[in-house]
Amino acid sequence: MSTVRDYYKTNHSTFDDLHKLLDREPGLLAQLPGLRSRALGCCGAVAGKGSELKLAVVDPDGWDKIAKEQAGIQGKLDAIDGMVAKLDSIFAEMEQAGIEPREKTIRAIWAIEQSKRAQVIDPHTLTNTDHLGHRIPPKRDAQLVAWGERADAALQEAQAIVDGQQAAQPNAALANPWASLAEKVRQSLFA
């Protein structure tokens, strides 16, 4: 079973974005049986060889419309499953690295990253500010940041698909490297 789904079942949070997305899964699953019964309504019996009856589509336009709806719902379910698989792999990597998050949420990854930040002390001022009075950002664990960013990206991608929006730029860092650098500077200065 999935560690993310197990944690979701035992420690549900209405304030966590991951759990909000997983809350939508039962509603999507509940739509499938209705679509299947509507699809059967587009079918009829056709005489075959001898006394054989075959099921055939008698309303192709209705069938295509229902198939399109079902494919959309299935795509949303697949996006949620893909996100859960990515998060499970991230938590497995963390466990292999010796980091055991108590909570199996994206917020927990960032909380661990924040707790492991190391203050950088200027040797001349003996504080965390430089000689001009600018704050020196704390040193961050690159692996924890990478895990957190991968988890955030997986969640945002799944949310975009489930909400019916296609992500315009799946990876903004590749589209504009200056924007990602500016974002990293902003995070380090105001974290």
Describe the overall structure:
The protein is mainly α and 191 residues long. 62% of the residues lie in helices and 5% in strands. It contains eight helices and two strands, in the order αααββααααα. It has helices spanning 3-10, 17-23, 25-41, 60-96, 106-115, 142-162, 172-175, 177-190, and strands at 43-47, 53-57. It has a two-stranded antiparallel ribbon with strand order 1-2. A hairpin with a 5-residue loop joins β1 and β2 (53-57). The chain is elongated, with a radius of gyration of 25 Å.
- β-strand amount: 5-15%
Proportion of residues in helical segments: 55-70%
The largest sheet is: 2 strands, antiparallel
Compute the number of strand runs.
2
Mean pLDDT, as a whole number? 83
Widest sheet: strand ordering: 1-2
Q: Sketch the topology as an H/E string, one letter per element.
A: HHHEEHHHHH
Query: Which class of secondary structure composition applies to the elements?
Result: mainly alpha
Count of discrete alpha- or pi-helical segments spanning 4 or more residues: 8
Assembly status: single chain
Ends distance = 35 Å
Q: Taking Cα atoms only, what radius of gyration do you get, to the nearest Å? A: 25 Å
